[in-house]
Specification:
The complex is a heterodimer of chains A (about 375) and B (about 325). Chain A has about 375 residues and is α/β, with parallel strands linked by helices. Chain A has 13 helices and 14 strands. Chain B is mainly alpha-helical and about 325 residues long. Chain B has 11 helices and 4 strands. In chain B, a hairpin with a 2-residue loop joins strand 2 and strand 3. Chain B is globular. The chains are: A alpha/beta (about 375), B mainly alpha (about 325). Chains A and B meet through strand 7, helix 7, helix 8 and helix 9 of A and helix 1, strand 3, helix 9 and helix 10 of B.
């Protein structure tokens, strides 16, 4: 057993040195591997599949042009479990020898995987992790292609107090690494606007939120904000409506999925508002670049692009541009990312030194007739 | 804060009773198996989970997608409860046959049975996430995503208590749960099978000498306990209209707590424990916030056990052992 391990270690050591000599990666000659990590089959897969599809679309389009160096997309299904994500990251680094990672999708897993990638000097671009603290670790290889909750929370709060004109707001969080800080940012911003805020938290592993619903019914708010993912959000919304609570329901990007509508029932979900730092290419867009992306996405997956699809596409595009520029080692690619400035589908993609993207727009979406539609930028949107 | 309590007392009571009844029905399975075999059947949480899917199968097969009324609604609810019972009781009996009986025959320790239970539990969860939900319910790639029940009934307000609405689904849950528990109480205390169960619980050796077939009594115990979990699953589905492959986990822990709280091995204790737990959770949430619900329920459990180690009502299925 010890001998076998020793041999395996030798084997790995050998193959690690070869690419350095040959100047190409460990994958097939003329190809590099880019990873995608996120919850692909778990409870919140609905908001991870679209960015995966977006990234895959970008890479497929690139490979069809018969480039000198092709890109292979390797998927890592972390099921949003940080310990699984860390193990997969190790595998990606040691066995698969990827040169860049799109993801991890969620904030909790990103916090755990970040140090591992940093140590391996492997660049990553998340298309969906929005926790503020991720950018405060001094990580040099970590990036995200959308604004954080520190931008999202106040943006949504401004809309609640402005566009939605609410005076008494009930804010609920799911205590997660994503939901709690987002809800706290909304609370803080609402208070500066003189809005009355009542609090509660729920456990997303549960399915009975009647005690939360009773509190909301007693507080009689004009609006409710939920910081958490759509699986709990849909059940919460249904149980609120069952208690005859008719206040406006708002949530953040974690709830921007048709799962919210399925969970709550179309009738209950009608009119629900969801803020997001993401830009979804809805069928009524006019921008030519976005239209082209939406059409290609629909052709490939026979569905309209959903949440983070364009961000996933943009993250993959950054890596593709790096490879096009002849950068095929993690170190060179990271160098390239720090100087990148390209027009993406979702926004102009340009990263600050801490890994944050420069563009800071928040969008508000509304459920209408059982579908998610774009209402407008948070600062400008009005309820019709 | 006291004002909050006054405002939220009645709705919390109604929700606590409805949820507590579901806990109580699941707790019956833990308590009966413990009474007869002195074994905690930790796979019972999955028996409940399968009950929710058994009930889900009825509207799925019938293709119901709008709210029903009158006799059609009553019929569908009864069918859902029966389907839940069938699925759960079948699972419980199969568990006994496959995961417990071989161990019992070979005189394995109770710890071995416990490990077997945990293994069976994980197996059943993954079976549903990977095969049953994607294949049987036709949701490819969505085995781990929550499945919603089509709205089968209008959530009509039946009456109100102090201005707080009490809705049809809440009444259905409480009435059906209490009805099932009365039937079970009669079954255990008044019938021949019940006498066999009680005899086995009190003294298995003596019961064998008196001509009780232990294997068939154990099978009956799992069958009845599983059936009750199936009713709980159907009622949960009717009230909350969603389920998923790991739904049993939290319910299992809570129902086990309820069984211990009421006095494990005691059928009426399961009822008392379940309803107490449901109410305490909801009242506690008013004061401390909903995220403290679990802390409150387990604190109450510890407090009760400190002063009454046998639970609120104590053991009764095997008083002779005390």
């Amino acid at each position: 057993m010890a001998l076998a391990l020793g041999l395996a270690a030798c084997g790995n050591g050998g193959s690690e040195t070869t690419p350095a000599d040959g100047g190409s990666s460990a994958a097939a000659p003329g190809a590099v591997k880019i990873g995608f990590m996120g919850d692909l089959t778990g409870a919140n897969a609905g908001i991870v599949i679209p960015p995966r599809n977006g990234a895959k679309l970008a890479i497929d389009q690139y490979n069809k042009t018969n480039p000198a160096v092709k890109i292979e997309l390797v998927e890592y299904d972390s099921q949003a479990d940080p310990s699984k994500a860390v193990a997969l990251a190790q595998q990606a680094i040691k066995t698969d020898k990827i040169v860049g990672l799109i993801g991890p999708a969620f904030s909790g897993e990103s916090a755990q995987v970040g140090p591992v990638l940093e140590e391996a000097k492997l660049p990553s671009i998340s298309a969906s992790a929005t926790n503020v603290k991720l950018a405060e670790n001094g990580w040099k290889y970590w990036h995200r292609v959308l604004p954080n909750d520190g931008v999202q929370g106040p943006g949504i709060a401004d809309f609640i107090a402005g566009g939605a004109a609410a005076k008494n707001v009930f804010v609920i969080d799911d205590k997660s690494e994503y939901g709690k800080p987002l809800a706290d940012a909304v609370r803080a911003q609402l208070k500066t606007k003189g809005v009355t805020v009542t609090d509660d938290s729920l456990d997303p592993a549960e399915s009975d939120f009647s005690s939360v619903a009773n509190k909301v019914a007693a507080a009689k708010p004009d609006a409710i904000f939920f910081g958490g993912y759509y699986a709990a959000g849909g059940n919460l919304l249904k149980q609120l409506r069952d208690k005859n609570v008719t206040a406006k329901f708002l949530s953040g990007d974690g709830s921007l999925d048709k799962g919210l509508i399925e969970g709550a029932g179309a009738e209950n979900a009608e009119g629900a508002l969801v803020g997001c730092p993401c830009y979804i290419a809805t069928p009524d867009v006019t921008d030519a670049k976005v239209k082209e992306f939406a059409a290609a996405y629909k052709a490939a997956y026979s569905a309209d692009p959903a949440i983070y699809a364009s961000e996933g596409y943009d993250a993959a595009t950054v890596f593709i541009e790096a490879v096009k520029a002849g950068k095929t080692t993690p170190e060179d690619i990271n160098q390239f990312i720090s100087t990148v400035d390209i027009a993406g589908v979702s926004k102009q993609v340009k990263f600050a030194p801490n890994g944050e993207v420069e563009a800071k727009d928040i969008y508000i979406y509304q459920v209408k007739g059982g579908a998610i539609t774009l209402l407008g930028k948070a600062a400008e949107a009005k309820l019709g | 804060m006291f004002n909050d309590f006054i405002n939220q007392f009645w709705p919390s009571t109604v929700d606590g009773l409805a949820f507590g009844s579901i806990y109580a029905l699941i707790a019956l399975g833990y308590t009966m198996v413990y009474g007869v075999l002195r074994l905690i059947n930790f796979a019972h949480s999955e028996v409940f989970m399968i009950g929710t899917f058994g009930a889900m199968f009825v509207p799925f097969v019938l293709g119901i997608n709008s709210a029903l009324t009158g006799l059609a609604l009553v019929g569908v609810i009864i069918l859902m409860i029966l389907a839940g019972m069938l699925a759960s009781a079948g699972t419980a009996v199969a568990l006994e046959r496959i995961a417990y009986r071989p161990l019992r025959r070979r005189g394995a320790s109770r710890l071995a049975a416990l490990i077997s239970a945990i293994g069976a539990s994980i197996f059943l969860q993954e079976l549903f996430a990977l095969i049953v939900i994607p294949e049987v319910f036709d949701r490819p790639q969505q085995g781990r995503i929550q499945m919603a029940l089509p709205p089968i009934m209008e959530r009509t307000e039946l009456f109100s208590i102090a201005g707080h609405p009490v809705k049809l689904h809440q009444v259905v849950v409480v009435v059906a749960a209490v009805g099932m528990m009365v039937v079970l109480d009669r079954l255990v205390n008044r019938t021949k099978i019940g006498r066999g169960i009680r005899a086995t619980a009190q003294n298995p050796e003596a019961a064998v000498l008196m001509g009780v077939n232990i294997d068939s009594i154990v099978r009956m115990t799992f069958l009845i306990g599983g059936g009750m979990a199936g009713v709980a699953g159907a009622l949960y589905l009717i009230a909350y209209e969603n389920t998923n492959y790991y739904i049993g986990f939290l319910f299992g822990i809570k129902a086990f707590t309820a069984a211990v709280l009421g006095g494990i091995g005691n059928l009426r204790g399961a009822l008392v424990g379940g309803v107490t737990l449901g109410l305490v959770e909801n009242y506690g949430a008013i004061f401390f916030g909903s995220d403290w619900k679990h802390v409150i329920s387990f604190t109450i459990l510890v407090l009760v056990l400190m002063f009454r180690p046998t639970g609120i009502l104590g053991e009764s299925l095997q008083q002779a052992r005390a």
